[in-house]
Design brief:
CATH topology: Transferase(Phosphotransferase), domain 1
Helix content: 40-55%
Number of domains: 1
CATH architecture: Orthogonal Bundle
Largest sheet: 6 strands, antiparallel
CATH class: Mainly Alpha
Structural class: alpha+beta
Order of helices and strands: HEEEEHEEHHEEHHHHHHH
Strand content: 5-15%
Length: about 325
């Protein structure tokens, strides 16, 4: 049976209009769910912490305590800065909203009514940073945290998200004692020249050598950002592991960031703590993570597999036979 051309045109038109209406609804729905300006209320007139590029406030949203991270920045010489920055932030934020993993911080949305810069709305983690949290714990607990962080990083990489600034201060601990990787991807949209920063331990202490000494053709910001890869995240993971075990920033004995840069470019690395000598496989893994050549570093999946394989071996040796448990009996799944 031949369908009249007029009928085809009619149904095609209905289909196209239906798709258009759906896309219009979806675009506005995403915007509405992303913008939390009308749903967040600050709980104090004073911020509770100062970060490198943002002030942290406590807020409430939907009867839930949240962290309100108000970014600091602006430029009198670049009138398009705020518009361009907000567009980039909203683009990335739509990806962040869909990340779901027990070792990755959730991202609730943005708010635009706490100053001229946007604010990130995040869960409020009362247990603080992973480094502070494990300061009174034993090495087994620290190793447990490292394993979970590796799993969170593997998830991010599986979702094509490069963190770009992994370090102890960007891993918080939730109420269930799970480490949560935070601030993923934020490094790629913050231009240091446009932001008001507070002096903190130099990021160079977690930064891979290929980023410190980029090729000559990496002259633009985009070229420089392209040097941040999954391999550079793995380097930072190695340094974060060291930080968790020592309670100190990498190269803590070096007070000058420039001396750290020259030392790393020359192949220098921090001294491993005594505990690593008891765990040769862990020491070897960390050294692989901070290899000078990015291509020789393991992937986040390989790191997780090695940590879990050692966990099973430890459990088998100690008589813990549950294969679904982590390094020290913590359930991951």
């Amino acid at each position: 049976m031949t369908v009249p051309q007029s009928s085809l045109t009619f149904y095609t038109s209905k289909f196209v209009n239906g798709v258009r209406n759906y896309l219009y609804w979806r675009s506005n729905y995403l915007q509405d769910t992303l913008d939390k300006s009308n749903h967040v209320v600050l709980q104090s007139d004073h911020y509770i912490a100062i970060g490198e590029h943002a002030d942290l406030w406590e807020g409430r949203m939907y009867n839930r305590k949240v962290a309100v991270k108000v970014l600091r920045g602006g430029s009198s010489s670049n009138s398009e800065f705020l518009t361009n920055f907000t567009e980039r932030l909203e683009y990335e934020a739509r990806t962040w909203q869909h990340l779901k993993h027990p070792n990755v911080s959730e991202f609730y949305g943005l708010a635009f009514n706490f100053g001229h810069m946007p604010a990130l709305i995040l869960p409020f983690y009362d247990n603080g940073t992973v480094v502070d949290y494990v300061s009174e714990k034993d090495n087994n607990a620290r190793l447990d945290m490292v394993t979970q962080i590796a799993q969170g990083l593997e998830y991010l990489h599986g979702m094509s998200v490069v963190h770009g600034d992994l370090r102890g201060s960007n891993v918080l601990v939730d109420a269930e004692e799970h480490p949560r990787i935070c601030d993923y991807g934020l490094a790629f949209i913050i231009e240091p020249s446009e932001f008001t920063s507070i002096k903190t331990a130099g990021a160079c202490r977690w930064t891979a050598p290929e980023i410190m000494n980029p090729p000559e053709n990496a002259t633009s910001t985009n070229h420089s950002l392209a040097l941040f890869t999954e391999a550079s995240d793995i380097y930072a993971f190695g340094m974060t592991t060291l930080e968790i075990f020592t309670g100190k920033i990498p190269f803590s004995q070096k007070r000058n960031d420039s001396s750290v840069i020259f030392y790393v470019l020359g192949g220098g690395r921090p001294e491993l703590p005594a505990f690593f000598k008891e765990k040769e496989s862990l020491a070897r893994l960390v050294q692989e993570c901070w290899d000078q050549e990015p291509g020789r570093r393991p992937t986040s999946r390989a790191v997780t597999e090695k940590l879990l394989a050692n966990a099973h071996e430890e459990n088998a040796t100690s008589g813990i036979g549950n294969p679904s448990k982590g390094w020290f009996g913590t359930s991951w799944f």
